[in-house]
Write a structure and sequence with these properties.
This protein has 111 residues and is α+β, with helices and mostly antiparallel strands. It has one domain (9-107): Roll (Nuclear Transport Factor 2, Chain: A). Helix content is 35%, strand content 22%. It contains 4 helices and 4 strands. The chain has a 4-stranded antiparallel β-sheet with strand order 1-2-3-4, with helices on one face. β1 and β2 (72-77) form a beta hairpin. The longest helix is centred in the middle third of the chain and has 13 residues, at 48-60. It starts with 8 loop residues before the first helix and ends with a helix.
Length: 111
């Protein structure tokens, strides 16, 4: 199991973004808040050469906190056109992938 305890929200977001380059259901589920339509996150993937280049970028890109509450942090980075929230549940941080799921559904013509 991927441990998020003691890790910064930025680290969890970075790991999630990298996991989405080569979709792996088990790995992604361990990084996100439960969502009934999460399966869209591991459908399809990038060509390997593109995934490799993006992973290199994601490992070094800046991630900025633009909002913060006790158990929620809103993060912005160049890998996502929309800010993403990372929430603390228990002692671990999880990405709220809802906005990404919604965007992918719209791109596929689903509501």
């Amino acid at each position: 199991m991927i441990m998020r305890q003691g890790r910064a929200p930025e680290d969890v977001l970075r790991e999630f973004l990298i996991a989405n380059l080569r979709p792996d259901e088990v790995r992604i589920r361990r990084l996100i808040v439960n969502h009934p339509e999460a399966d869209i996150l591991w459908q399809g993937d990038y060509p390997e050469n593109v995934a490799t280049l993006l992973e290199q970028q994601y490992r070094t890109m800046a991630i900025e906190r633009i909002g913060e509450q006790q158990n929620q942090v809103l993060l912005r980075c160049s890998a996502s056109p929309i800010p993403l929230e990372v929430v603390k549940i228990g002692d671990c941080w999880f990405v709220d992938a809802g906005p990404i799921i919604d965007a992918r559904k719209r791109a596929e013509g689903r509501s």
